[in-house]
Design brief:
Layout: H1 26-41, E1 46-48, E2 58-61, E3 71-82, E4 85-89, E5 99-103, E6 106-112, E7 118-124, H2 125-138, H3 149-167, H4 182-187
Antiparallel strand pairs: 1-2, 2-3, 3-6, 4-5, 6-7
The protein binds zinc ion (ZN).
Residues 91-93, 133, 137, 193 line the site of zinc ion (ZN).
């Protein structure tokens, strides 16, 4: 297994539409394992293959406190949506940015598991948001697309500036910068997807 590097917004490669997996073989399982390791080490609660520059319809999610309940969705499809909720979302591809997004609070999903076996799942609450956030990635969409144009351009400038600073050799900054405390940053692991 290997930790892969994560593409950062506004990288145009995040805008590609991921292609369906034709056969769940060892190469796909290797990708799943690498994605899980990348998500756990980030740390985050969800990751789509496109975020590690693999334009395939593969998602991993783990919302458990113990970080031992990996959920794998290959070729996921949303069959039904219901209700509404507003949750704070972050994204491993948009580091340090957290914004509220309104989405359906219940979705029915169909996908293949790590062995290529089909399953259906009723997702609610944070899992429903996470599944929709990750499926958006597979369609070339990032959660900041739901924000106002003004906010989007502020976020883009902020991240481009940070990227330039890092290229210039400035020390890498995590989320716990400025006024945000370490505790607040730790609590936010649950919104990084
Ligand atoms: Zn994301």
């Amino acid at each position: 297994m290997a930790v892969k590097s994560i593409l950062h917004y506004p990288d145009p490669r995040l805008r590609r539409k991921a292609l369906p997996v034709e056969q769940v073989d060892d190469a796909v399982r290797r990708l799943v394992d690498d994605m899980a390791e990348t998500m756990y080490s980030a740390p985050g609660v969800g990751l789509a293959a496109i975020q590690v520059n693999e334009p395939k319809r593969v998602i991993v999610i783990d919302l458990s406190e113990e970080r031992n309940r990996l959920q794998v969705f290959i070729n996921p499809e949303i069959l039904a949506r219901d209700g509404e909720q507003t949750l704070e979302e972050g994204c491993l591809s948009v580091p340090g940015i957290y914004e509220e997004v309104t989405r359906p609070n219940r979705v029915r999903v169909r996908a293949l598991d790590r062995d290529g076996k089909p399953f259906e799942l009723e997702a609610e609450g944070l899992l429903a948001t996470c599944v929709q956030h990750e499926i958006d990635h597979l369609d070339g969409k990032v959660f900041v697309d739901y924000l106002s144009r003004l906010k989007q351009s502020r976020i883009r400038k902020k991240l481009e500036k940070r990227e330039r600073e890092q290229e210039a050799g400035a020390p890498r900054r995590g989320d716990a910068t400025g006024r945000e405390s370490l505790a607040a940053a730790a609590g936010r692991i649950r919104s990084k997807m």
